[in-house]
Amino acid sequence: MPTTSHRSKTPGAAAKRRRRTLALVFILPAILLLGALVVYPIGYSVVRSLYDASGDHFVGLGNYGEAVHDKATLTAIRNNAVWVAVAPALVTAIGLVFAVLTEKVRWSTAFKLLVFMPMAISFLAAGIIFRLVYDADPHRGVLNAAAVTIHDTVNDDALFPGAHPRDNTALSKRPDGTLSAPASSGTLLLPMVGVAPTNLPTTARPAALPPAAGGTNGVVFLDFIPGGGGRPGQLDPGKKGLPDVSVQLLSEGRTVAATKTAADGSFHFDAAPTATASVVLPAADFALPYNGVDWLGPTLITPAIIGAYIWIWAGFAMVIIGAGLANLPRELLEAARMDGAGEWQVFRRITVPMLAPVLGVVLVTMVINVMKIFDLVYIIAPGPVQQDANVLALQLWLVSFGGGNNQGLGSALGVLLLLLVVPAMILNVRRFRRN
What we know:
Number of strands: 9
Mean pLDDT: 85
Number of helices: 13
Helix content: 40-55%
Largest sheet: 5 strands, antiparallel
Distance between the termini: 48 Å
Order of helices and strands: HHHHHHEEEEEEEEEHHHHHHH
Strand order of the largest sheet: 2-3-9-6-7
CATH superfamily of the largest domain: MetI-like
Strand content: 5-15%
CATH class of the largest domain: Mainly Alpha
Shape: elongated
Radius of gyration: 35 Å
Structural class: alpha+beta
């Protein structure tokens, strides 16, 4: 009996060993590839982070101390925190809204294709696209073109944009942009420059003194004669008046009277000037044209790049969440509607809680993704503001290969970035296993 039992177990054990060997043969290439592309670079980076820029001298944790005290690195960590706090939540929320809406429209397939299409574009191409979208010139940048169109529709254009007083004249510029000159019993000559003669309105006439006597008088004129000639600041023949310019007479900080210049630039107030009176030209008539928003400036550069990121990844979130939405039990949703629940209540109390596992996976995936963001920041941010948009992955590249040539410090940054990403990766793996 013992002999027979021993013989019966031998074929099973041999088969199990063969299966394990066969499995190892199939897994071995993947293990070798993983070791060569992941394990070895991580180990080498950890070791390299303990040496100086040349790689010859052991500095221990010195590179890590330098990294956490470097101003550029602290800016990168702050920007990464902004990315993690804003971008994943917005991508997940927009993807959820798109997924729910596509179930209620007839052309859902076309809508999904349109939203998902940016995923087919490389980050390099997307960065170039949004570099043009955010261009400050409204003739090139789409956003500023729209902003200028809306602004010019709602607000009146300045009569003489860019006009300003000639130096050493009675007019002075206030902090709010208004032009002010002390009132006097004589006629005020208010010469202006910065207006091309071809941009004068057709109603403009040769500058002339107001016919009325007494009170407060003056003339606003273009201190320039086509072809040259004339004396600066003087009312010479050939100079044109600036018509329809708003003029205010102020005394002790309050407006006493207001008028507009005639076709020859002249104006008249019946009120006699006082010692504290002044003639004011509001800034609105001379304001420079509105050219939009400085999207690529230091203040808005990070939100602008986050906007480009959302444009790319919203389609991914929509597809993943849409797949989870398709598996929800329709009977439960219909029962809630039959019980009198509105669409918002169904969405908030049933759809979102049941989609929580899927939303969690998308959110954590986006967190991992934004921790490593590099391409969009490097391409969209102009050179002068690149440090304002700096993130850890970009800082790693800059100190290692972008001029710093310090692979020791770059390796330390890489290890820090890995340590920040690993917890999110572990959380995502656990979610996948649980689901």
